User: Fold this.
Amino acid sequence: MAGIAAGDGSATNGQEAAGKYKGVAPKADLVVVKLKGGEESGTFESAAVVDAMAYLFEKAKVLNEPAVVNMSFGFHGGPIDGTSLLDQAVQSAVGPGRIIVASAGNQRAIPMPAEGTIPKDGSDTLTVDLSNCHAPGCTDVILSLWYAGEDAYTIKVTAPNGTPLSATDGARQSAVIDGSIVQIFNANSSPPNGDKNSLVTFSGRGSGEFVWSITLQRTGNRGSGKWDAWTVPPFGEVFFRDHVPRNPDSSVAGTVAEPGSSYGAITVGAYTTKFRWESSTGAQQSLAAFQDFGWLYFLSAGGPTRDGRIKPDLAAPGVLMSSASADCFVSNCIPENLSRDGRHLMIGGTSMSAPMVTGAAALILQADATNFPRPLLKNTAVQDFFTGTELPDNTWGHGKVSLLNAFNALQSDQPPTVSLSAGPADGTTVPFTASASDPDPDDSIAEYLWDFDNDGATDAITTTPTVSRKYTSGGAYTAKVIAVDQRGKNAEATTSVTVTASASDDGRGCFIATAAYGSYLDPHVQTLRNFRDEVLMRSAVGKQFIDFYYAWSPDAARFIARRPLLKAGTRLMLTPVVFTLEHPRLSGGVLLTGVIMFIPLAFKWRRSD
Assistant:
């Protein structure tokens, strides 16, 4: 591993860094694997990627070795906010000694994202250009729209010939318009983040200029009104004409792809360290007209993510890398694209820069097998004339990777210390606070990795020491936090927590009953939950009552739980209700007797008035 070049672009940078770190001999072998999109299209299945990650890290665990996985692929069909299943799988897999590096993507020059904010009861119209979408390379186009789950939109698609197609919130519409099969899937739910995801798809095309307009009419006004959209076709053949977010340098913002948008990934952009090469024909080839030495690759994608985080984390050399010619057989490669030996292909993009950082992370783990290198690589990145000093930003991240700087910083580092405490539970939600410090005067805590049930998976990654966890069921849990300093050194702490409130399928429990009976496992509480789910939830009036109940019951439950006499009184009031639900026939007779006795009393009270 010592010969890997993963620094500022010079071939000796990795060797020099490894040489300067001879005081600590490498104690670990590395499992270094590259995951790449399958088939010629570069597509992949998320499930297969997750299975591959699980296998690799499990294999590394059996071998008791650290592992680094490189992911040079991307996808824009998800929410780009870290909550997709793929992004969460990446986050869950990482930790000290378990590293995932992802390419940022190569869409920085393509107007593929769009965004906007719609006022209450307002509307917005965006324009999408499909003029360059031709078979066989571009036949099916998807527009993926994301917005707050509390909002609702009516989506109207208008064809180039003026023909409209509309779908209200929750509806699906399809038609053949102007030579295209158009489908609107309005407001598909997205369980991981609670937002709504609507899709507009186009299959086939007519003739002439093929520009469509999409109007969003806001009909539900409880959310923010903010929407985001991405095109999901082959690169550059479909793009938005308006509502395109821009960086300060006028490049397109919000182009980073999944899994680069994951909280767990080290996401890498690309910059230029070479723009000339001698091809297999013996001629000198050049990209100088497109790329200048030291500058960011003009296609290197960046942030922000939909939830506002900076991506990429840093940049690495990625233009005209000499790589095995796996993308084409040597016999049918373009000779000018082959290197001098005729066996290696000159390739550019973040798929080349990400492996450079993967190698850097591998070298760091050889020296410190339990390191979490992302903070170390970010905080030792180089800022120069090309990056500017106003970093981090959504093009360069924290700057250019420097393995030499990283090793110099790693030599003098000491691990932090951390303790963990849990606050009083609010229903099934438990607040946690980590108290961490670092003995190095020029160091501090950079990240906190949280495992709320101590199962080995990273459930959340934050830069702040406080976080809340909503548990899906009651019980006793052990929660763990790992505090990571700016040099990747880390320490962990655990604490025990007991959750005594219940959570139904929609995450809401019978708060008052749980407070009164002392446990969500009490059979009286289960009876009330069953009545809620099997009776009240099946009628509009019942649902309104449930919404009203959950608006005020948590505060009332906390008040009751702290007062033993009030708990006893609440149980006394709930007992006949529970009895009625458990014994409807017997309780019906009791209720009828009560009504018969009540009638003469009512007439007596009426006469007395």
